[in-house]
Amino acid sequence: MPDDTLLWRPDPARTRSSHLAHFITDVRVTGVSLPPGNDAAAFRALHAWSIAHPADFWSAVWRHADVIADTLPNGTAWETPLLGADRMAPPDPVLGPKWIVGARLNFAENLLRRDGDELAIVAWDERGRASERSWSALRDEVAHTAAGLRALGVVAGDRVAGWLPNIPETVIAMLATASLGAVWTSCSPDFGVDGIVDRFGQTEPVVLLFCDGYRYDGRAHDCTARAAELLPRLPSVCHAVMIEYLGAGDLPTDRRAMRWADLARPRGRPRLTWERFPFDHPLYILYSSGTTGLPKCMVHSAGGTLLQHLKEHRLHVDLRRDERLFYFTTCGWMMWNWQVTALATGATLVLYDGASLPLAEPGVLWRMAAEERIEVFGTSAKYLSLAEKRGLQPGREYRLDTLRAILSTGSPLASESFDWIRNDVGSAVQAASISGGTDIVSCFVLGNPLSPVYRGEIQGPGLGMAVEVFNDSGAPCPVDEPGELVCTRPFPSMPIRFWNDTDGARYRTAYFDTFPGVWRHGDWVARTMHGGFVISGRSDATLNPGGVRIGTAEIYRQVEALPDVVESVVVAQRVPRAPGMDERIVLFVQLRDGVILTNELAERIRRKIRAGTSPHHVPGVIVQVTDIPRTRNGKLSELAIRDVMAGRPIKNVGALANPESLEQFRNRSE
């Protein structure tokens, strides 16, 4: 468990003016009794109320965020805010909760409520600022693109797919799609043809948007050849629209191909029109990583996504109008969808496309943060670890006086990375580790502006999220005892269904089979004495040497604190012939260039693990590798390594960004 070091306290002036403080005041006015002040105790009481009275809580969020929606004759936005609120089940018409019944809204309308010359989007690549869009320009381009899609025959419920980089045109295409009530689905341009077909082949888009290529770490990568190979394998696509990002691509010869300029060209001056749809109308289809088979296709609703993101952006991140939010992400990761909703707060999006640590300028993201005066900087835990190992000291190299929060997700944030943020970015910067997933397109646990940050801890649960830690018997675990992260009550951003899962069987198997009536998320986690959380990895990748269950992140935190180790991955291996045990820990390490795994270094690694954890955590075998397999979202693929070590086939190699790395792990039984 982490130590008791207090790293950050909320600034009282910022706290008093925060969205969350105003929200608490509004709740008190309705007669809810909460402790005085705006501090961690008030947050804990507010969270307890939000779980006990979900209809009142989500109604208050709706009002606080001023959601744009049709109202009913009685002047309210719904007749019954929540049905079946105590029944945690897949949200189908019979079993599960129906959210905000009677409300009709348009997701894009809520994101494009601003107009004018202020900046809505700023876009960067590895070379610097590439483009920008004012609010009025963004609205115009969305209107033209929506008119173009409508002219192609796109109607509500159709799927529009983007195989695109993180650029303004991608945001524009998504907003145009949502404005029509069509469903947006996307993946990043580094996906291969098989990986794209595994996703879009299931959801059958009628329009595909793709780019002629993209740049990564100083190199241009062409996409037109893959597009020509891809299109015959997507028969549902009626129109394929190419965005000339590199500016040098030829259209595929496929008759369905056309250019972005022809789709989004001005057609007079079309007005943005907003047809409003039911709260649970589909907005997005997101995909699981697919490392154990075809990706699951998760359908998320417009209302649930909007309401959950507004809650997180305003109440948890305290994002304000005209502030600048950046998140390092691709269009194949749910954080892309999460960041775009920040437009609904009136914030400016800062987009970045390229390598996070390009060889030409490893600190480019921090230069961007300084030049764009970014307030909230989002990234992955892995990036922060690598930035530390590269010796970056952003707080000394750049003027980051506007930066107030760093958000981190994708994997557990190591305690050493909390230290690095404080020491090398800024002591006044909030280190907000967050965790949720594609499954909920949001967070279960995350930061908030009222509670302190302790070293190695996520600050607390999301408001309205009934997060618990269960043992194998389904009973709550005491403080500091790890177990399964579960959610015991419904929440708006639960998927409305899986695509092509007509009876809901795959949905129920994914979340409700382990603890009936309780959402099991698959994270191995412990609650701390401060009310925070520490995540130790995926529960299906936990280790069990000698019957002691261990989260993989507990080992990573120790190993990757060593300067010679760039990255590591650990798996359990069955060893039937070993006396007194049936499982051993095998640790693979990727070392700095020129460093060799000697007996002395291996012993130093073992001592570090033993001192920081326990003797149970010490690996039986340590092996040096040159690369470690990751999914295309950047997550370690521990299960793929475990399977390939045992000689089992990998069900979906296309889900990996670097499948060639698996050869180093094949049939390792020595």
Biggest sheet character: 8 strands, mixed
Gross morphology: globular
Mean pLDDT: 90
State the separation between the terminal residues, measured CA to CA: 32 Å
Strand tally, please? 33
> Looking across the biggest beta sheet, what order are the strands in?
13-12-9-7-8-15-16-28
Whole-angstrom Rg: 24 Å
- Helix/strand structural class: alpha/beta
Assembly type: single chain
Q: How big a fraction of the residues is strand?
A: 15-25%
Count of separate DSSP helical elements: 20
Determine the fraction of residues in helical runs and give it as a percent range.
25-40%
Low-confidence stretches: 78-86
Overview of the molecule:
With 670 residues, the protein is an alpha/beta fold. The chain is built from 20 helices and 33 strands. The chain has an eight-stranded mixed β-sheet with strand order 13-12-9-7-8-15-16-28. The protein has a seven-stranded mixed β-sheet with strand order 6-5-18-17-19-20-21, sandwiched between helices. A four-stranded antiparallel β-sheet has the order 26-27-29-30. It starts with 5 loop residues before the first strand and ends in a 25-residue tail after the last helix. Residues 78-86 have low confidence and may be disordered.
